[in-house]
């Protein structure tokens, strides 16, 4: 039995994602594809465009067999934390033999060399990294400068390459038996916002929807052309009903959260300087996006601010992100202590029995049965997922005027 694992956001699911799943099934001969997918919030620190159950259903309709939720503390984190959580989750299923990920660079050996170089963190590398950071470079740009190899620096300038390198690093740190395999990214670039390409990026689709809140039939057809045909009816319904969220839909709840404390130092991704900057400027808050723009500077990237604000909204603290380090290594079971099902296909149904047999952590079908299966530490992590889903549900209800079931009554796909 061949089982391929994919770590994804599907924000939203598009033709490039469908291509990756087809590649796993048709070219790699996968019997099953298991996806570790972000839930209600994403790595950018913003809510996912569509709710997690719709996105899981879209993946299943396009060939995935089982979709598991990546805990929100990892889903909203930096690339290294995101990758480590995703790898741990798939490893704990006990069935995945291949980790398939997209990258701009198709050279797996080069990606591995960079991952190994970064993991060494020699004194010379650390000194160059500090120098670049002090010079105002973002962490990603500083790391590219510190590696002192023009070809590698070019690879590190691409977002999917960065994630690919972090997946390789996570596989090594967790001593995983999964075999890595990279698939060169097809179509538009990660940050490309145009829909002109045959395979537009998720960013392009989100920007198009944001720029066309009242779409004509022609504009809707243009957007749907970037979505697999099997999903057209679902996506049209979601758009028609207004069931989609953007960063600024968090503004009201975030503004309230910003007034509730006098110290954001212990918030994940924050520090003393960021906390003070937020406190000094929160009286100028108007919206999520405008506040990020206000706070960003040459040494504080928009993406970092966005994640900090998301973590304030969701009350995710540094202590909630359990990561391996030199003094206190953690194994995959501690990092991802449960497998939360978002949906499975008819073909994927046998996977549930196999995971119960071979998996290393409990398989959770509903929060209702979790307390008897999970440790207090694992329940704390699950409670963060439930709270994040409740926040998303509240924002969606406020926007649409519709009722949406909570995590205890919602059925998975």
Task: Explain briefly what this protein structure is.
By secondary structure, the protein is an alpha/beta fold. The protein is built from 19 helices and 7 strands. Strand 6 (about 340-345), helix 18 and strand 7 (about 365) form a beta-alpha-beta unit.
Structural class: alpha/beta
Alpha plus pi helix count: 19
Ends distance: 24 Å
Tell me the strand order in the biggest sheet. 5-4-1-2-3-6-7
The portion of residues assigned to helices is 40-55%
Helix-strand topology string: EHEHEHHEHHHHHEHHHHHHHHEHEH
Largest sheet: 7 strands, mixed
What fraction of residues sit in β-strands?
5-15%
What spatial form do the alpha-carbon principal axes imply?
globular
Poorly predicted sequence stretches spanning 5 or more consecutive residues: none
Number of strands: 7
Radius of gyration: 20 Å
* Average of the residue pLDDT scores: 91
């Amino acid at each position: 039995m061949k089982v391929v694992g994919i770590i994804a956001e599907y924000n939203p699911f598009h033709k490039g994602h469908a291509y990756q799943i087809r590649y796993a099934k048709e070219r790699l001969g996968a019997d099953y594809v298991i996806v570790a997918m972000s839930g209600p919030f994403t790595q950018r620190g913003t809510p996912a465009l569509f709710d997690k159950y719709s996105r899981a259903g879209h993946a299943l309709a396009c060939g995935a067999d089982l979709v598991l939720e990546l805990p929100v503390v990892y889903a909203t984190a930096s690339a290294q934390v995101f990758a480590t959580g995703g790898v741990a989750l798939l490893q704990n299923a006990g069935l995945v033999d291949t980790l398939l990920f997209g990258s701009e660079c198709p050279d797996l050996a080069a990606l591995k060399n960079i991952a190994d170089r970064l993991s060494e963190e020699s004194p010379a590398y650390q000194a160059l990294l500090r120098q670049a950071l002090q010079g105002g470079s973002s962490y990603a740009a500083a790391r590219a400068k510190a590696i002192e190899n023009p070809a590698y620096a070019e690879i590190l300038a691409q977002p999917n390459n960065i994630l690919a390198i972090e997946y390789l690093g996570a596989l090594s740190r967790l001593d995983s038996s999964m075999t890595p395999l990279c698939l060169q990214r097809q179509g538009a670039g990660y940050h490309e916002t145009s829909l002109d390409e045959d395979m537009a990026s998720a960013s392009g689709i989100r920007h198009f929807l944001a720029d066309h809140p009242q779409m004509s039939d022609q504009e809707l057809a243009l957007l749907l052309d970037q979505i697999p045909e099997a999903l057209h009816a679902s996506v049209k319904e979601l758009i028609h009903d207004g069931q989609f969220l953007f960063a600024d839909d968090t503004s009201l709840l975030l503004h309230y959260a910003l007034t509730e404390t006098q110290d954001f130092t212990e918030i994940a991704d924050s520090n003393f300087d960021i906390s003070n900057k937020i406190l000094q400027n929160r009286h100028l808050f108007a919206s999520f996006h405008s506040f990020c723009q206000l706070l960003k500077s040459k040494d504080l990237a928009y993406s970092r601010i966005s994640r900090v604000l998301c973590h304030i909204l969701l009350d995710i603290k540094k202590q909630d992100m359990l990561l391996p380090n030199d003094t206190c290594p953690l194994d995959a079971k501690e990092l991802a202590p449960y497998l939360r099902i978002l949906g499975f296909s008819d073909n994927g149904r046998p996977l549930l029995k196999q995971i119960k047999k071979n998996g290393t952590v409990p398989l959770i079908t509903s929060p209702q049965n979790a307390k008897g299966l999970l440790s207090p530490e694992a329940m704390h992590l699950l409670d963060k997922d439930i709270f994040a889903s409740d926040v998303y549900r509240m924002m969606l209800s406020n926007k649409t005027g519709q009722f949406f079931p909570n995590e205890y009554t919602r059925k998975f796909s």
